[in-house]
Amino acid sequence: MLGKEEIAKRIAQELQDGWYVNLGIGIPTLVANYIPEGIDVTLQSENGLLGMGPFPKEENIDADLINAGKQTITTMPGSVFFDSSDSFAMIRAGKVQLTVLGAMEVDQSGDIANWKIPGKMVKGMGGAMDLVASAENIIVAMMHTNRAGESKLLKKCSLPLTGVNCVTKVVTNLAVLEVKNGAFHLLERAPGVTVEEIEKATEGELIISGEIPEMKL
Amino acid sequence: MEHQPTLELVQEVELIGHNKKHRMKKVVKNAEEAIAGIKSGMTLMLGGFGLCGIPEKCIEALSKKPKITDLTCISNNAGVDDFGLGLLLKNHQIKKMISSYVGENAEFERQMLSGELEVELTPQGTLAEKCRAGGAGIPAFFTPAGYGTEIAEGKETREYNGKMYILEESLVSDYSIVKAWKGDTKGNLVFKATARNFNPVMGMAGTITIAEVEHLVEPGELDPNEIHTPGIFVHRIFEGKNYEKRIEQKTISK
């Protein structure tokens, strides 16, 4: 079973040289720590920055320089600032090659829910609806089951949706799955996790074809 | 457009535009003078992302006028409990918020869940484009964001090149309040780093736009190549003192 850092590490293997990438809050943010050597990716922060650098040293903190998670950050050589409408122009027009975000539920048709639990929690969608409606490559990073042990990979999402038919891949603490043709396709198992365990934790339709390899981290 | 400015405001703007005596008088003394004319029931746009780039001086000045109530505030976030728009929430000066993310404010959540506060959650890119379009004289536009979700309910949808879009109406405000790094007396503005965010587009969409700046300079001191917001969009400007610029998530590398 993977921890959060290892989920991020596995997702980082998906990055390709030259890509512009938007990382959501939580596990997705950690992906930035595992960008493979020799791969040049530019991180887009939807509050108005391309070329996000690491967190600052204490002496370099700038209140005017934050990421979409409101954390203090730094720039890189070649960084650029822009306003919120330009930021979502590049997202909407598909210039950002990969979006990684967290979710409360994903279903087998690629629908995602991650912004609202009616009556309990309403924080808002932020930029998530814009991101999932436009990116061609959407990877969800999340735990396979919720705190009650129930599957988060469902036949049909029960919570209010963030977007429809949009998730392309899911990386969880148990597995890597591709979402296509109305089903979850099991690609890899987390080290030490059996196919049976993944089947048990997946409510949506799961396609298992041939021998399922273990992830290489 | 979802909001029409009052006749009174339109007349004031015409005065600014046509009366030579008034045309150059954009500079006001301070936040209190800048917010003069804001009345109960008006619609305000306030720049900022989280607490970054918020017009903290004007918000503070509004919080000292608790008789101004029933405001509709268009702002990406709602501040925190004791800073930014949280100050106006605490005073119950806000009737309705139009935002994309409000998770940072406990009082906000309480007022929303109890029904005291009306909230229109809008995808962030749609919110930015609603302001930009409003400021550009475009009444509505199609966007894919929110298609198939509850955001699309009751809205016209249309297919273009095999993809579905929803029709979103643009926004204008009675007063837009923005925060810039530098500005000149003609109202030209330069923003710093990610404190730019919603400020330029909201600045465009104000019937009256107020800019508070850290450094107010004379015309000619800003490089025309590097101005972000042309002064034509700005009606009042002042230099704020002692900015707090509170940080929400101080994160450092080890």
Characterize the structure shown.
Chain A is α/β, with parallel strands linked by helices and 217 residues long. Chain A is 17% helix and 26% strand. The longest helix of chain A has 9 residues. The model of chain A has no long low-confidence stretch (mean pLDDT 96). In chain A, the strands form three sheets. Chain A has a ten-stranded mixed β-sheet with strand order 4-3-2-1-5-10-12-13-14-15, with helices on both faces. Chain A has five helices and 15 strands. In chain B, the strands form two sheets. In chain B, strands 1, 2, 3, 4, 8, 9, 10 and 11 form an eight-stranded mixed β-sheet that branches. In chain B, strands 5-7-6 form a three-stranded antiparallel β-sheet. Chain B is built from eight helices and eleven strands. Chain B starts with 6 loop residues before the first helix and ends in a 15-residue tail after the last strand. Classes of the chains: A alpha/beta (217), B alpha/beta (254). The interface between A and B is large, with 52 and 57 residues.
As a percent range, the share of helical residues of chain A equals 10-25%
Envelope shape of chain B: globular
DSSP summary: helix tally of chain A:
5
What is the structural class of chain B?
Answer: alpha/beta
Total helical elements of chain B: 8
Biggest interface, residues from each chain:
A-B, 52 and 57 residues
Distance between the termini of chain B: 49 Å
Stretches of chain A where pLDDT falls below 50 for ≥5 residues?
none
What does the radius of gyration of chain B come to?
18 Å
What is the number of beta strands of chain A?
Answer: 15
- Major pleated sheet of chain B: 8 strands, mixed
The chain-level mean pLDDT of chain B equals 93
Mean pLDDT of chain A: 96
The largest sheet of chain A, given as strand count, sense and whether it forms a barrel, is: 10 strands, mixed
Q: Which oligomeric form is depicted? A: heterodimer
Strand content of chain A: 25-35%
Query: What value does the Rg of chain A take, in angstroms?
Result: 17 Å
Principal-axis shape of chain A equals globular
The SSE string of chain B, one letter per element, is: HHHEHEHEHEHEEEEEHEE
List the uncertain runs of chain B: none
